[in-house]
Design a protein that fits this description.
heterodimer, A: alpha+beta, three-stranded antiparallel β-sheet, 3 strands, B: mainly alpha, Ferritin, 0% strand
């Protein structure tokens, strides 16, 4: 079968339906020129960067600084990643059935059917 | 002692008035993200002002508080530089005013953190990280706008022509600054001028902007002689305390 993966934007809103690129930004200027960026923040506790939201910026440097002002004001993070939303490829929600449902009835894939000897800790 | 109080109030007033000015952008920023950025800077500045006012209040005694110093002094008692109180006009002029001031504040606080006065030194050290970011942010915007479109360049250059006349005062020491310097707790502002000028020229050359020639420099703010703008700022800032004396929430 020929599976095609369609490119979707943040929030699974297809581009042609007026998703990210056309978000209105308030008064004045041609702000729709500014691309959308996805922001990932690493918290003090965590090792991984978690997705926290998105914002508009003219370039990468501005995206990082905007992210600092918008998403780290309350000591949320120690590191920021920003990636232009158009570089994120998402699965198509319409294909969720064939993508994810086949896993539902295969609980034997979870290693929960073993009797563990008492000597084994931390499992 | 009086010079220490005046010097502390001068530093506080600079921060408070610019914080108040920038806060006028709240809800009106050119884009949401920059609205938040400029309001963040406002909050940083008002935080700095509070630290200085609290210290000044303990020096003055006599029931003075940070609130009485911010809300109940008159125009002539404010010691902020003229540059600080100039109107926002547009994003270009707001950015430029922030850039001029942050560069100035950075050079002062960099030395003030080694002041003989432990309290001033501590406030300076704490504020310096904030200021470093303000400087970085405003420098980048000066370059963006100066080296941007035809219109952004024109507006930036217009802002320079408007604000340049207020930059001279920054490096002219007032009486209390001279005394503060003599007593070893203040910074010699006149000696910061060359470095400030070099940094500004560096950014301007990248931004393709030019410095106006032979400008008559306006002075007086540090001594309490202000432009007409300060009165309007104080009217708004102090309205609640003037209309309902002692009101709290």
């Amino acid at each position: 079968m020929n599976i095609q993966i369609r490119k979707l934007y943040y929030g699974d809103i297809p581009e042609e339906k007026g998703g990210a690129e056309n978000t209105p930004l308030g008064a004045g200027g041609k702000q729709s020129d500014w691309p959308l960026w996805e922001v990932f923040i690493r918290s003090k506790q965590g090792l991984d960067h978690k997705h926290v939201g998105s914002l508009h910026a003219a370039d990468a440097q501005m995206a990082i600084e905007n992210a600092r002002d918008v998403y780290t004001r309350r000591m949320e993070g120690v590191s920021i990643w920003a990636v232009e939303s158009k570089y994120i490829h998402a699965s198509n929600p319409e294909e969720a059935g064939e993508f994810f449902e086949p896993a539902v009835d295969k609980i034997y894939r979870h290693p929960t059917f073993y009797d563990l000897p008492d000597e084994v800790n931390h499992m | 002692m009086n010079s220490l109080i005046d010097y502390t109030l001068h530093l506080a007033d600079n921060a408070l008035i610019l914080g108040q000015r920038n806060s006028e952008w709240c809800g009106h920023g050119p884009v949401l993200e920059q609205d938040i950025a400029i309001t963040n800077i406002s909050l940083d500045l008002i935080g700095q002002a509070r630290n200085f006012y609290q210290y000044a209040a303990t020096l003055i005694g006599d029931n003075a508080t940070e609130d009485s110093l911010a809300y109940l002094r008159k125009e002539r008692e404010f010691k902020n530089a003229l540059l600080i109180e100039q109107p926002n006009v547009d994003w270009a002029q707001t950015i430029l005013r922030q850039f001029f001031f942050s560069q100035y504040q950075y050079l002062i606080f960099d030395q003030l953190q080694h002041s003989k006065d432990k309290q001033l030194a501590a406030i300076a050290e704490k504020s310096l990280k904030e200021i470093t970011y303000h400087l970085r942010w405003s420098s980048e915007w000066v370059i963006r706008l100066g080296d941007g479109t035809e219109e952004s360049h024109r507006r930036m250059q217009k802002a320079i022509d408007e604000l340049w006349r207020y930059t001279g005062e920054l490096f002219e020491a007032s009486n209390y600054e001279l005394e503060a310097m003599k007593d070893g707790f203040g910074v010699a502002v006149s000696q910061l001028k060359d470095e400030w000028m070099n940094k500004v020229k560096e950014i301007f050359s990248e931004a393709t902007l030019s410095i106006p020639e032979k400008t008559f420099m306006q002075t007086g703010g540090k001594e309490g002689k202000h432009t007409e703008h300060l009165g309007y700022i104080l009217t708004e800032l102090q309205y609640m305390q003037r209309a309902y004396p002692g009101c709290e929430w």
